[in-house]
Amino acid sequence: MSLAPAIRMNGLAFFILPSALLFALFFFLPIGLMAVMSLLTGNPVVAPNVAFTTRHYARIADDPYYFEVIWTTIRIGLWTTLAALAIGYPLAHWMARIKSRAGHALLLMAVLAPMLTGIVVRTFAWMALLSDKGVINQTLQSLGLVSQPLKLMYNETGIVIGLVHIYVPFMVLTLTGVIGRIDERLEQAAENLGASPLRTFLEVTLPLSLPGILAGSLLVFALAISAYVTPILLGGFQIMTLPILIYQQISANFNIGFAAALGMVLLLVSFVLVVAYNHVLGRVSGQRDLQ
Amino acid sequence: MMQSAPSGHPRELSNELDSGLGRSDTSARRHVVPAARHRVRYGRMLYLAVNTAVLVFLLAPIAIVFVFALNPTPFIQFPPVGISLRWFEKFFASRDFMHALGFSLEVAAITTVCATVFGASAALAIARGNLPGARLVVATMLSPLMLPAILTGLALFQTYVLLDVGRPLWGLVAGHTLVTIPYVVRTTLAVLHNFDLRLEEAARNLGAGPMRTFFEVTLPLVKPGVLAGAIFAFIVSFDQFPVSLFLVSPGSETLPITLFNYLKFDLDGTIGAASAVSILLAFVVVIGLDRTVGLRSYVKL
Fold first, then answer.
1. CA distance B90 to B87
2. Which of A88, A140, A201, A272 is buried most, with the most CB atoms less than 10 Å from its CB?
3. CB A16 within 8 A of CB B126
4. Which residues of chain A have a CB within 8 Å of the CB of B152?
5. Residue A180 resides in a domain
6. Where, subcellularly, is it found (chain A) (predicted)?
7. Which helix (H) or strand (E) element contains residue A111?
8. Is the pLDDT of residue A6 over 50?
C-alpha cells in the first residue's frame, strides 16, 4: 500500500514519451543527419555512389572568404552584445529595484511588447526609421542638422541597431533575475557607511551582478550570431553572415553538404555558448539555494 | 496584475516611510556636503533619463509601424500628413496577404494544439514522474529555444529532402512545434512547482480515484500555466520565421515569409498595415496572458 504512490509516480513518467518521440524524430535525427551530410560527397538518395569526405570542412578552413564571413558574424554578435548590455543594464536595474507593482508591470509590458512582435515586423520598423528617406534622416534634414542623409543602414551599424532591439529583452530579463536576487541590505549597508550611490553601485551591485552580465551576454551573442532576417534586410544583401551564407548554399547552390558543414560550425559555437549560459545561471541559483 | 496593485500599497507606504527617513537623514547631512547631495539628485535624474531613453528605443519602432500604416502617402513620410485606412484596405484586399494570413493562423492553431499536448504532458512527467536525469530532460526540451532556429529549419529540410517527402504541412508544423514546446514546458513546470501536493492528497483521502483527482484537482490547478504556454506557442508560431524559411513551399507561405519577400522589393504602407495587424494580435495575446496567469510566471529566464 505504501508503495502505491511511488508506482503511480512512475506511471506519470510515461507522459514524457510523446515529446521524447517528437524530439527523437524531428530534432535529434535531423541534426544527426545534418552531421552525416556534412561528411558526405553528395546526396545518397539521388547519387548512387557517395563517399565520406572532409572536403566541406576543408573548404571552410582553407578559403579566407569563409573566415571573413565567420569573423563578420562574430563581430556583429560582439557589438550587439556590448550594446545590448549597455542599454539593457539600466532598465534591468530599474525593473529589479522598482517598488510599485504597477510600475513593474508596466516596465515588463514595455520589455515584452517588442519580444512579442515578429522579427520581420521589427526589422521593417527599423528600415522605416533608418533608411536614407527614413524617419530619422527626414527629421534631421528638416531640422537642418544634416545636409546629406546619414548612412544608418545597409551597413553593420544598421544590423547591430536592429539586432540590439530584437535581443535586448533577453538581456533585460536575464539581468533582472540576477539583480533581483542581490540582497538590497548590502547596498544599504554600503550607503550607510558613507559610500555614494555611484560607488555603491560600482563596488557592490555591479560585481554581484557579474553572473547575470555573463549569462545575458552569452545568450544575446548566441542569438545574434544565428540571426538571418535582420542582417539580410538591414545589411541590404551586402553583408554576408554565417546564417545568410547557409541559406544561400541551399537556395542558390543547393549544396546541401556544404550548408550542413556550415550549419555544424554554427551549431557547435551555439551549443558551447548555451551550455556556458546554463552553467552560469545554474551556479547563481545554486548559490541562492545555499544561502 | 493590475488588480493586484492595491495589495502593493502597504509596501509602497513602508517605502515612503523609508525614503522619508532617508530624506531627514540627508537634510541632516546637508550642511556638511551640499555638493554630494546635488550629485545624488543629478545621478537620480540621469538614471531616469537613461531609462526613459531605453524605453523610447524599445517602443518607438512599434509606434512607427502604426504611423506608417495610417499615413496615406505610399512612402515613408515623417511627420505624418494624415490618417487613412487605405493600406489596411489594400492589405485585406490582397489575395497573397490574405492567403498567407489564413495559412499562418492555420499553422499556428495546429502547432498550438500539438505543442500544448506534448509540452504539458512532458512537464507533468518531469515534475511528477520521478524521471531519472530530470534536469537534462528539461535542458533538452528547452534547447530549441536557444539553439539557432535556422538550424532546426535546415536540419528538418535536409531530412525531408533525404526522405523525399516534399514540403508537407505536417513537416512545417513539426518544426513549429519544436520551437514552441519550450514555452509550454516552462509555464506548465512553473505552475507544477508551485503546486500544493496536499490538495491532491486531500482529494484522494476523500475517496476520489487517481483519474478523478487528476481531472478535478490537478488539471484545473495547472490550467493557467498550460493556457499561458498555449497562448505563447500560438504567437511564437504565428511570428516564426527561421524555421518556416526552409520549410514552406512556394504558393503556401506563412505571413512572416510573405512579409519578408515583400520587404525585399517594396516598402509601402501595405507592409505597415500587415505589421500593425500582427502587432495588434500580439497585444491581444499579452493582455490575455496577463488576465489568465499574470506576466511574472513565465518570464523567468
1. 5
2. A88
3. yes
4. 27, 30
5. yes
6. Cell membrane
7. helix A101-115
8. no
The pTM of the whole model exceeds 0.80: yes
Give the distance from residue A124's alpha carbon to the nearest chain B alpha carbon, in angstroms. 7
Mean pLDDT of the region B126-138: 85
Do A196 and B285 make contact, defined as CB atoms within 8 angstroms? no
Residue of B nearest to A19 (CA): B118
Interface pTM, i.e. ipTM: 0.86
Write the CATH number for A243: 1.10.3720.10
CB pairs under 8 A between A and B: 287
Q: What pLDDT, on a 0 to 100 scale, did the predictor assign at position A247?
A: 93
B181/chain A closest Cα distance in angstroms:
9
Here the cell at position B119 is 509540452
Chain B interface disruption, residue of A124, A161, A174, A213, most B CBs within 10 A:
A124
* Closest in A87, A260, A266 to B148, CB measured: A266
**For an interface test with B, which of A21, A109, A120, A254 has the most B Cβ atoms less than 10 Å from its Cβ?**
A120
Chain B residue numbers touching A96 (CB-CB < 8 A): none
A220 versus A45: the higher-pLDDT residue is A220
Structural domain contains residue A177: yes
What's the whole-number mean pLDDT along residues B252-271?
87
pLDDT at B9: 40
Output the pLDDT for position A157.
Answer: 93
> How many structural domains compose chain A?
1
Residue B127, C-alpha cell as written in the block: 515534475
| A147-151, B167-171, B237-241: range with lowest mean pLDDT | A147-151
How is residue B270 written as a grid cell?
Answer: 501595405
Please list, in sequence order, all residues whose beta carbon lies within 8 angstroms of the beta carbon of residue A208, skipping any fewer than 6 positions away.
A182, A186
Whether residue A89 lies inside any domain: the answer is yes
Min CA distance, B76 vs chain A (Å)?
6
Mutation choice for B interface testing from A40, A101, A258, A271 by most B CBs within 10 A: A101
How many whole angstroms separate alpha carbon B120 and alpha carbon B73?
Answer: 48
Gap between the Cα atoms of A289 and A251, Å rounded: 50
Most confident range (mean pLDDT) of A7-11, B151-155, B289-293 is B151-155
Structural domain boundaries enclosing A215: 64-290
Q: Using CA atoms, how far apart are residues A167 and A159, in angstroms rounded to an integer?
A: 12
- Is residue A275 one of the residues assigned to a domain? yes
Q: Report chain B residues whose CB lies below 8 A from the CB of A229.
A: 241-242, 260
